[in-house]
Amino acid sequence: MLENGALTRAPLKTPKAAAIAGIVFSFLMATIFWLLRRAIPADPLEPGAWLTANSKATVALALNLVPFAGVAFLWFMGVLRDRLGEMEDRFFATVFFGSALLFLAMLFAAAAAMGAIMLVDSAVEPNELTNSATFRFARVFAYIMMNVYAIKMAGVFMISTSTVVIYTGIAPRWIAFLGYVLAVFLLIGSYYIGWSFAVLPVWVLLISVYVLIDNLRQPIESTE
Prior knowledge:
By secondary structure, the protein is mainly α. The protein has helices at about 20-40, 55-85, 90-120, 135-170, 175-190, 200-215.
């Protein structure tokens, strides 16, 4: 019988392969971005011709992948916080955590707006939605939400994470410096360059691959 009737439990540990979540996020976001760019014109004021073409199936597939990408991103955040451990600073942790959650919230909001457009279009007469002000508002709302606000939060996330990397050494410094450069690019040029959204998945992929390799190289702790 255990002393004082207390139960002893092994501490919950992050799996060594948990960093694969960041890799999954990177590939999912790259796929989503490619599908949307292939189906929907970049101009937010376009007349909505894609709603009457086969592009609707492509857009629906991309939108259905968004929740899975969001879950993978949350796991990626958990991996970074676990790697920091007691070195985590409250200030940078707040900026890191807040910007990441805002990015996800805006990503989901933009996806919900696009999903609402498709759902309403299937319930009304042909061309009725595309000729309305409601369609133009929802289309521009989704565009600005992603290409302005969500992208800016992604840049803040990269800056805060890169700063933590430099001060704690949880990843190579060159990844942090690259993160600064790419973050500035997002903050300044995201509104003018359509493919800038791909910057975040590529950077997350670099960090995740390094963390995964480093975790797998570490010897398995012996249990007593």
